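Repro:
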Amino acid sequence: MALYPRWAGTDAAAPPRPFHDRFAAGRELAKHLSAYANRSDAIVLGLPRGGVAVAYEVARALNLPLDVFVV
């Protein structure tokens, strides 16, 4: 087992990004959560510092209310 990140040999300060941006990540996540679409007993919570952008796309795609969860 390696003791360094899987992206070793590249710029460790900037690991590879699996998504173009957080909005794209939210759209992809929404595909996996489609069973929750249009439910009256569901809400999408987004954490500040990047999570709200992801949550926005999930809420929009699934037609669910969105709220911000501050901890």
